[in-house]
User: Fold this.
Amino acid sequence: MARLDSIVAAIVGIGILAAFTVGLAASINTLPFWVIVIVVLLLALKEFYDECLKKGD
Assistant:
């Protein structure tokens, strides 16, 4: 059950992070900031995969 809890918490956290950063990027609306936001979100998704989906617990 702990693994399911961490997956749900990670999905909620990434969703909140994505909503905030994409909203911020939309309000600023410059290409360099969009690139930073995309890179940060990709890193968050990679960390989610490594911590929640890849490990064999």
About this structure: The chain has a mean pLDDT of 94. The helical segments are 2-28, 31-54. The chain has one domain: 2-54.
